[in-house]
Amino acid sequence: MTTLATPIDRRSSRFVPATLIVARRAALRYLRTPQLVVLGTIQMAGFMLVYRYVFGGAIDAGNIPYVDFVVPGFVTTGVLFMGIGASVAVAEDLEQGFIDRLRSLPIPRSSVLAARALADTAILTWSLGVTVAIGFLVGFRLHGSLLEGLAAFGLVVLFGYVFEWTFIAMGLFARTPQAAQGFGLLVFPLTFLSSAYVPVDSMPRALQLFAEYQPITYMVDAVRALTLGPDASAQLGHPAGYFITRALAWAVAILAVSVPLSVARYRRG
Amino acid sequence: MTPTIEAHGLEKRYGKTTALDGLDLVAEAGQVVAVLGPNGAGKTTFVRAVATLLRLDGGTLRVAGHDVRREPDAVRRSIGLAGQFAAVEPAMTGRENLEMVARLFGRDRRTARAAAADVLATLALTDDADRLVRTYSGGMRRKLDLGASLVGSPRLLLLDEPTTGLDPRSRMDLWDAIRALVEAGTDVLLTTQYLDEADNLASQIVIVDHGRAVATGTPAELKRRIGGNVIEVHARRRDDLATVAIALDGLAGGEAAIDEATRRVTVGVDSDRAPLVSALRSVEAAGVEIDDIAMRQPTLDEVFLALTGRAAAG
Questions:
Q1: CB contact under 8 A, B106 and A11
Q2: Are A54 and A65 in contact (CB under 8 A)?
Q3: ipTM of this complex > 0.90?
Q4: CA distance linking residue A213 with residue B5, whole number of Å
Q5: 3-state SS of chain A: helix, strand, coil percent to 5?
Q6: Which of A65, A107, A266, B272 has a 20 to 30 Å separation from A209 between CA atoms?
Q7: Mutate which of B96, B104, B110 to test chain A, going by most A C-beta atoms within 10 A?
C-alpha cells in the first residue's frame, strides 16, 4: 500500500485547524439533512403565526403592540428550542462512536467540543435570521436605530452560543439521543415562565418571583429593549442597559458552569 | 524493535463491575494479535485503554513504546481505531470522510487527498467514493470505518469486533482487506468472539475471561491444547447417546461429551488424521442410528471448557 510511503506530518493538528475541520462536518450534517433545514423553518414559522394571530389577540402586552412584544421573545427563546437539536446531535455522536474516533486522533481534545459549539452557533445564526425575517413579515418593526437592532441580534447569537454549552453538557450526560430529547423538555418551563410570550406581571405572585429573576427574562428584555428604542424604559420599567448587564452576568454564570462541566464529562470518556 | 503493546496488570473498574482484573499482554512488533473472549470479558475495555479513551485504575500500558498516561498524544499518532460501530459520517461522502480524518492527522489538503484516494483504492471503494455514506450498505460502512483508521498510516490498527453483525460475504471481504494490510506491514490488535476469525487473521491469540488473560499462544499451539477440531454426532434416539459416546471415546483426542437436550455427542479430535471417517465407522459399528455427523472447529465455549475447565462467562 502506497499510503505507508507517503510522508506524513507527525505533529498534532493544532487547535484552530482541527476545530474548523470537525465543525465543517457538523455543519455539513445539518445542511445535507433537508428534513432538519426545511422542517425546522416551517415549524418556526408555524409557531410564530400561532403566537401572532391566535394567542396574540388574547394577550395584553400593555401599550406595546403584541407583535413587537412577542417577536423579540420568540427569537430569543428560539435559541433554546434549537439547542435541543444540538444536544441530541452530541448524544448521537457519543452513541455512534464518532466521538471515540475523534478522541483517538492526535488533536487537542478541546477542539471537538469547540467545533460543536462553533458549528451549532453558525447553524443557529442562520435559523435566527430566518425567524427574524418571518417576524418582519408578520408585522414586527424596529423602533430604535438599525444599530440597536443589529446589537439585539448579536445578543441573541451570543446567548445562543452560551446555551450551546449547556446543551453540549446535556448531550454528553444524556449519552443517548432519546435521553437528550427528554432533558430538552426542561426548555419548556424555562421559556414559558419568562417574559418571552406574556408580561410577567400577568402571572400569579409565586411564578412572578421565578420569572422575574431567571436568565431568559433578562435576555428577552435586553433584546426587546433594544428593538423598542427610546420608549423601552417607559414600557419595560428600565432602560436597555439595565437588562443587558443582568443578561450578560447570567450568560457568564451559565458559561462558567457549562463549559467546565462539558469538558470534564468529555475527558472522563 | 519495541513491542507494539506492553500491558502489565491492567485494572479498570466501573462501579462494582471489574472490567479489567490484572490483564497482561505483550504484542511483539510485526504481529497480528487477536483478543478472543465472550461478551463482557474485557476486550473492548482493553482496546479503549490502548486507544487512550479511558483512564486505567492500575497497571502500566505502553503502546509503540509510549506510556498511555504520560504521552497520550504520541500514542494517538501511532494508532488507528475502528470500532464496533461504523463511526463514519453518513452525511458526507466516503472520500470526504477519509480526507477529514487524514487532515485531523495533520496532513495538508493535498496529501490528505492522496492518502484518502490510496485507502479507497486499497479497500476497493473507489467506485463508491463520491456517494454519501448514508447510501452505503453495512459492510461498506464497516470497510470505510476501517479505512478511516488507516489514513493516518498508523503503526498499530485497533479493530474492535470488526465483523460483528456483518453477513458472511462482507465478513470475508473485510478479512481480505485486513490481511492485505497485514501483508503491507501494519500491526493489528483485534478483538473477536469468533474463533475462526482469530484463527484466520491472527499470528497470536490471547484468550481473555473476566478481565484477565487466561491463555496465550499461536493458533496452532492453542488448537493443540484443545485438540484441534470437534466431531459432533446427532443421535436419533436419546437412549443411544451413551453408546455413541463410548464409540467416539475410542478415537484419538479427548473424552466425548454428551448433551442430552440436543441429543448431541461431541469429541475433540486431532485434525491431522482423517478422524471423520473413523468416527463414522465406529458409530456404524456400534449399530446406532444417527441424524447427522460433522467435523467443525470448536466453539468459543468448547475452547473455554478445554482451557479453563469451565464454561465461558456471559
A1: yes
A2: no
A3: no
A4: 56
A5: 80, 0, 20
A6: A65
A7: B104
